[in-house]
């Protein structure tokens, strides 16, 4: 099939590479300009560079809503558009333009985790698996019929970075497999159960702030979700920002006020956590590694030279 590809960052790059390696003909690529947004500088392999290296025409747009782009798309005469990590709304006159419509590739197990940063949100929420879904685009974001979907398990120590590497390897088989079904003439696919749908916003600095009212189990996953190269989870100690790089749920239960620097356990320093910590039935969060405001990275047991005092949400 003749394919126009809309995509951005490493997800779009992997999708374009899969298309270039396939039997399909990529006739035009549309991508976003480079961004200085913290999350968009992560996994930032260039779709434009890959297209140009392979002689594919490239159009760069923030939004696909101008007449010049629409005319370029009509001239390209695509059988299908394939989109992955396109960051703005694609209007119906574009997604309905190709003979077979538009296939969107999304890094979650739809209908759950539509929208942005699905791997990070899924890890924070303790999902047992994550994956990639190829679905037909319609008027509602990430809500079209599912053509192909594959999942991978979330391990007990997986970080968001680990899950990125697991799922990015699914892009090629999911995308090319879905195109194969469409090219074969199949038109009926799996409708999404909208009663199970969830929709998440982009991550920002505020979403990395540690709230000691959360249970320790949730905080431990937050810290794994905010692993390098993502901005680290952070708290404040004596008015200074402190990044928490690694932590585990404590073996023992610790009661008191959330945020209290309480007890040395193994290689960690236990912080009281959970809205009902006063009951004494909560596990705490045993921080094992931190980074200070001046960039020093060190074991928590070395940083916290004495017990007592509090970690806080604000300076």
Automatic annotation (TrEMBL):
* One Pfam family linked to the record: Formyl_trans_C
A single GO cellular-component term from the record reads:
cytosol
Q: Name one GO molecular function term.
A: methionyl-tRNA formyltransferase activity
What protein is this chain from?
Answer: Methionyl-tRNA formyltransferase
Domain of life here?
Bacteria
Domain named Formyl transferase C-terminal is located at 206-306
* Limits of the Formyl transferase N-terminal domain: 1-169
Keyword set, alphabetical order = Transferase
Which organism does this record belong to?
Streptomyces griseoruber
Say yes or no: keyword Oxidoreductase present.
no
Q: Which SUPFAM superfamilies match?
A: FMT C-terminal domain-like, Formyltransferase
User: Could you tell me which InterPro entries the record lists for this protein?
Assistant: Formyl_trans_C, Formyl_transf_N, Formyl_transf_N_sf, Formyl_transferase-like_C_sf
